[in-house]
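Researcher: Re-running this chain for the archive, since the previous output was lost when a drive failed. Same request as before.
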Amino acid sequence: MKIGILGSGDVGKALGRGFVAEGHEVTIGSREPAKLNAWKTEVGTRGRAGTFEEAARFGEIVVIATLWSGTKDAIDLANADNLRNKIVIDVTNPLVFSESGPGLALGHTDSGGEQVQRWLPDSRVVKAFNSVGNALMYKPQLPNGPPTMFIAGNDESAKQRVTEILTSFGWETDDTGGIESARLLEPLCILWVRYGMATNTWDHAFKLLHK
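Model: Regenerated structure tokens:
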């Protein structure tokens, strides 16, 4: 499958490595594609770099892995028409930073996931991969078994496809409902970060337990 990724930071590159490892072709979109030369050398011929628009056109599934402050601009540069009817995996978190640490720019009555869906009304947006650090996104090896990735979205078939991707990436999946559930999932990022700051460890993930 062809995967487009908008965003060339650590998250975009980590997910790109995972998709390449699973046999997919990946194009990462960036404002500066040349800065991905080392990543392309690392992953081989299945990994490419281009503009946001090129990545959006290329991908059968497109991942948004930008900083929140650049998300709307990246979508505009990608051109929503290039994402029409496609599954869009929203990995973003609407983070703001202060002296007390990270917080959310949106919450309670709205979310980043809902904004992305409004910006892309003809795309099938699924919130996923937003509640863990990039080092554990692909094949997390944790002593208590695979962790749980919580997802949200309005399209059932899109969520099923994302669940299949998560399974191949070594995750269990919990479907929390429509895209408005991103209001609950995005604060999990803050919890993940706060725990990391308190313990100075970044190798943790969440797991939903069943009796």
